[in-house]
Write a structure and sequence with these properties.
Blueprint: E1 11-14, H1 18-27, E2 33-37, H2 42-46, H3 48-58, E3 62-66, H4 75-87, E4 92-97, H5 99-111, H6 118-123, E5 135-139, E6 151-156, E7 161-166, E8 172-175, H7 177-180, H8 185-203, H9 212-233, H10 238-252, H11 265-277, H12 281-296, H13 301-312, H14 321-338, H15 353-362, H16 375-384
Parallel strand pairs: 1-8, 2-3, 2-4, 4-5, 5-8
Antiparallel strand pairs: 6-7
Helix pairs in contact: 1-3, 4-5, 8-9, 8-10, 8-12, 9-10, 9-13, 11-12, 11-15, 12-14, 12-16, 13-14, 15-16
């Protein structure tokens, strides 16, 4: 295990009664002017919007709305939100939705407090914001775990880049499993696969030797797989949704990363693929993961063997380590098919080789990977994903 320092600052309220019990009291801790941020109109159709407005009214807040946050939030949308905050002296941001809404708001929180361009600050000057408008998150879709950290994935359309930007931590988050029932099943399954991907990308990081952090990760992966199957069988089971909601939070609250250098190479590839195609994040990950792992398993063989045995219950009798590892990867691919995720890019209507070339040429290459990839190999991997 590597040396580490761990602090966690977000207050988490979990349960179907969490909104009623905690939201108003939390809102009362902040100033009068509140930015209510959300996606399109789904929270209005489901009644979540009315619940938020009632809570804000009870807390005696002036509400300013910031709506239309898209699934892959753009930097232009961040600037739009920051302007609303500045123009209306916003004291607090309440982000209601999935990871895209919270990601957008984390960066809005920072951009609204500085005249500097956040993108230039972070990617050119390599400095990071230290002043933020406080914010809270009410999660309506699990999967990203975005509410648990200060990282945000933002698409800069002008530069053709989809990158990780650091912004604010939420002061608190409401995890109400009932809200996730409002999400279409295919979207919910995509979110659940994103959770599994977060776990795998951490698990296969360094050091390769397993220790307590990895054993906790294995439990979260098994729980995610089991409850994704249960959700597909019965999309109305709120207890199953609760399990997946907490799996999602565990995937990104830092606990599974303690003592690890994380390997998020699949995410880096998918982010750039998303920048060029606006594809669904979880589906893009599902299409890339198995092929990527078939390129990498020999360079982290003992961990892939453990993954096969501990997560997929692969029978090792009479098999070489390479055979065990490959069977584990096949189990992952079979699971994707079972839950309705794509296992190829062509299933997502992504077939333009020029886009694949640009993705390979511009994605980040991580140091935590089992073996550092070249851009040529990433292009080969993407071609194999077709």
């Amino acid at each position: 295990m590597n040396s580490f320092a761990f602090t966690y600052q977000t207050r988490v309220y979990f349960g179907t009664d969490a909104t009623d019990k905690y939201l108003v009291s939390e809102l009362k801790k902040y100033g009068k002017n509140v930015l209510l941020a959300y996606g399109k109109n789904s929270i209005k159709r489901t009644g979540v919007y009315d619940e938020m407005m009632n809570a804000l009214k009870e807390a005696e807040k002036n509400v300013y709305e910031f709506s239309g946050i898209m699934p892959n939030p753009t930097y232009a949308k961040v600037q739009e939100g920051a302007k609303i905050c500045r123009d209306n002296d916003i004291d607090f941001i309440l982000a209601v939705g999935g990871g895209s809404v919270s990601d957008c708001c984390k960066v809005v929180s920072a951009q609204a407090k500085t005249d500097e361009d956040i993108w230039t600050m972070e990617f050119t000057d390599h400095r990071y914001p230290d002043e933020f408008i406080p914010m809270g998150v009410v999660v309506t879709m699990s999967g990203t775990g975005s509410e648990m950290n200060n990282g945000a994935v933002i698409t800069n359309e002008e530069l053709g880049l989809k990158s990780g930007v650091l912004g604010a931590y939420a002061d608190f988050t409401i995890l109400n499993p009932a809200y996730t029932l409002t999400v279409p099943l295919r979207q919910a399954v995509s979110g659940a696969f994103d959770t599994l991907s977060h776990c795998m990308e951490t698990y296969f990081g360094k050091p390769s030797e397993s220790f307590i952090t990895d054993e906790i990760n294995e439990a979260v992966m098994r729980n995610t797989i089991d409850n994704t199957r249960k959700m597909v069988a019965d999309p109305t089971d709120v207890n199953v949704r609760g399990e997946l909601l907490w799996d999602s939070a565990m995937g990104e609250n830092g606990i599974l990363k303690i003592g690890k250098i994380t390997d998020f190479q699949c995410h880096q590839i998918e982010h750039q693929l998303g920048a060029f195609t606006d594809c669904n994040h979880g589906m893009g990950l599902a299409a890339v993961h198995p092929t990527l792992y078939r390129h990498l398993y020999k360079d982290n063989l003992s961990k892939f063997v453990r993954f096969a045995r501990e997560i997929w219950n692969v029978n090792a009798n009479g098999k070489t380590d390479e055979e065990i590892a490959l069977e584990g990867i096949r189990c992952l691919e079979d699971f994707e098919k079972e839950i309705g995720m794509p296992t190829s890019l062509s299933e997502m209507n992504i077939t333009d080789k020029e886009i694949l070339r640009k993705t390979a040429d511009t994605c980040n290459i991580t140091r935590g990977c089992a073996r550092q990839l070249s851009r040529y190999e990433i292009y080969d991997i993407l071609l194999e994903c077709l």
